[in-house]
Amino acid sequence: MKRILIIGGVAAGATAAARARRLDNQADITILEAGEDVSFANCGLPYYLGGEIPNRSSLILASPETFDDQYQVKVHTGTEAIKINKEAHTVTTFNKKKGEQTDYSYDKLILAQGGKPVTPPLPGVEKDHVFKLWTLEDMDHIDSFIAQKDPQTAVVVGGGFIGLEMVEALSNRGMKVSLVEKAPQIMINLESEISGFLTEELLSYGVDIHVNKGLSEIKDHQVILDDKSKIEADMVLLSIGVRPTLGLAQEAGLTIGESGGLWVNEYLQTSDSDIYAAGDINEISHRLHDKKIRIPLAGPANRQGRIAAENALGRQKSYKGAMGSSIVKLFDASAGSTGLSLTQAKDAGYEADAVVVHKASYTAYYPGSQKVTLMLIYDKKTGKVLGAQSAGYVGIDKRLDVIATAIAGNLSIEDLEELDLAYAPPFNSPNGPVNMAAFTAVNKNTGFSPSLLAKDVEDYLIGQEAAVIDLRDPISFNKAHLEGSNNLSQNMIRQNMDQIPKDQAILLISEDGQKGHVALRMLHGAGYGKVVNLSGGYLSLERQQRVKAFEHLQVGLFSLPKKEINPSEQTEESEVEKEEITQEGPLVVDVRTPGEYAMGAYPGAVSIPLDELQSRASELGDKDRHIILYCASGARSSYGQRVLMQMGFSQVENGGGLHDMMARA
Ligand SMILES: Cc1cc2nc3c(=O)[nH]c(=O)nc-3n(C[C@H](O)[C@H](O)[C@H](O)COP(=O)(O)OP(=O)(O)OC[C@H]3O[C@@H](n4cnc5c(N)ncnc54)[C@H](O)[C@@H]3O)c2cc1C
After folding, report:
1. What CATH class is the domain 332-445?
2. Pairing of strands 333-339, 352-360
């Protein structure tokens, strides 16, 4: 009978034990766990604190008793392993409650001690209102502190995913939250424009963000930052990183890897052939570039636990490594990444490039559809997909998972173009964000539609002395634009081509990059060879500016919507100010939705959404009245024109898009 001893009983350790039992009915399997709980859902802790998960008990996935009953695995909680005796094949433990030392023997040992949150050595970190969140006990401390002390203000230190989840949780508990981050942006693994989306969400919810600043001291109701500024803080949550728990391994002389995690081979075997390791404690290989890294996430920990158990029982299963697929929810928003970021890909030696699309999560006409931002990162030489980053309100996880699978399958951007993904209006578009990002990447990589990323706009404009044409409608343009840009619709460009020299470098900016691509193809067709489209359009430029302001460019920012955790009363959809329908002169009708109309409309235009045009036709007056319909692009208004003409209106004109209409004003 083989004796399998496991140190650590949460993600990797618990998985290893369960897998080992399924593989070997006879094995003697024991878990040593220093804490009071095994197999609890640490990823769920912030959601319990925030109130989304109502029952604490649902975070406990298994108990020592269930392990014994279901798996015949012995679990010793409150039992800390204090020494590995490699020669004797024993582990010495100390049980604090009993005050006892005990030795446990093993044939194969699996280390699954995970990591520990980093605590900075700063004045005040030991105070009672300063917390970390790693265990159920930590969560209980925070919960009872909030219940007893009713803190009004909180500072979260660290803008990684636990920090962001806690910003939301503490805001949900009614606190005014400030976020402090030493790096120039939150979620440092995300490209800045993707991080910009989360920044906008934080600002909308009234969270104060302090980037490029570290903590220097914690006082009773205040923290002091390294620039001497002060922030009110009735409580402080530290989430500045995780270090692998290596004490035991180091003392036992096991090899530590170059990235600071425990070294293991592809079979998750440490430098001692009878000791395996799994989870946050390990250094692993990146699946794409094979370099050694640490990826302290639950998915890799669980999978390693499984493999370590198999190999400890004599199999030879290799672990292929991880690629850091991760996602975070922040209030209504979510963002995440898989594979390499553009920066990481370049650092790893790839000739990497990227494109950004903002495409509806599912057909725009189906209620609830929202834009998915998707940055696709690929190798210019081979077309191989290297990574993706995504942000939005709906359908982010799906796009990341599709691309994670594509990376695992070694697919190229051309393969992604052809990917046959499930579609019906409530789920996707016939050419959803993944296909669309692939089309855009192939268009860029083949030179069919050159584009550049928002972060590169400044260098490009300075280097090329390019003219900037902003294709958005004049109302959006007037609200926010890049200083020095020219606001022209595609029609206006076509009409004024004789005034634009063919060798002029031009940067096209549209709302999300799509119209820029169409205008670029028109200009290329007309002989303009130095035209570039801004990938992701103004949406990307604005998010980039929000996170990393350009040195020389003045980029206007739209005002952000104000959002509340518990809106006191449901805010009504903004009431559209109604224009009176007069009987004189041509009648201009805006057939867009009331929401679009509220954002800005042609002066004097009345709002009759396309869907209501037929039922409200009697409001338009005589059938021979001159009526001009318009919408955003001219498509809906052309349909409206047909509807009215079929009803007998004789002088109905399609005014086209708002841009064309404004040119008449
Ligand atoms: C608040 C929070 C939210 C998270 N959210 C996510 C998420 O959304 N997605 C995601 O992928 N990951 C998330 N993670 C990370 C994820 O939980 C970890 O990557 C995963 O738990 C690592 O598993 P592990 O088994 O290696 O280590 P752990 O789960 O940390 O377990 C290690 C166990 O070993 C025990 N131990 C340590 N030393 C000894 C010793 N000497 N003797 C006995 N026992 C010992 C510890 O007490 C601990 O219980 C989150 C983590 C936290 C804390």
Report:
1. alpha beta
2. unpaired
CA 404/CA 288 separation, integer angstroms: 11
The confidence score (pLDDT) of residue 598 equals 86
Q: Domain 451-547: what homologous superfamily?
A: Rhodanese-like domain (3.40.250.10)
Q: Cite the beta strand spans of 221-368 per DSSP E.
A: 222-225, 230-232, 235-238, 242-244, 275-277, 284-285, 292-293, 326-330, 333-339, 352-360
Closest C-alpha residue for ligand 1 atom 5: 43
Active site residue 43: no
Give 662's contacts (C-beta < 8 A, 6+ positions apart): 473, 474, 475, 602
CA quadruple 396, 402, 404, 410: dihedral positive or negative?
Answer: negative
Distance CA 436, CA 17 (A): 44
Q: What is the pLDDT of residue 572?
A: 47
Q: Is 643 helix (H, G, I), strand (E, B) or coil?
A: helix
Closest alpha carbon to 239 in 145, 163, 332, 179: 163
As a residue count, the chain comes to 665
What is the spatial distance between Cα 131 and Cα 644, in angstroms, rounded to a whole number? 65
Please determine whether the domains at 130-240 and 451-547 fall in the same fold group of CATH. Answer: no
CATH architecture for residues 587-664: 3-Layer(aba) Sandwich (3.40)
Of 263, 266, 265, 269, the residue nearest 250 (C-alpha): 263
List the end-to-end C-alpha distance of the chain, in Å, as a whole number.
Answer: 88
In ligand 1, the atom with minimum distance to the C-alpha of 8 is 34
Say what the pLDDT of residue 220 is: 96
Q: What per-residue confidence (pLDDT) applies to 639?
A: 92
- Dist. CA 242 → ligand 1 center (Å): 10
Backbone angles phi, psi at 576, to 5 degrees: -75, 130
The span from the CA of 20 to the CA of 77, in Å, is 19
DSSP state of 68: I
Q: Which residues of the chain have pLDDT under 70?
A: 568-579, 582-583
Domain assignments of the chain as residue spans, ordered by start: 3-116+243-312, 130-240, 332-445, 451-547, 587-664
Helix/strand/coil for 590: strand
Catalytic residue (one of 215, 335, 391, 631):
631
Q: Which of 10, 118, 295 to mutate for ligand 1's pocket (most ligand atoms within 8 Å of CB)?
A: 10
CATH class of 3-116+243-312: alpha beta
Q: Are 155 and 236 in contact (CB under 8 A)?
A: yes
pTM > 0.90: yes
Which residues, in sequence order, are bridge partners of residue 626?
A: 651
Q: Regarding the domain delimited by 130-240, which CATH topology (the fold level of the hierarchy) does it fall under?
A: FAD/NAD(P)-binding domain (3.50.50)
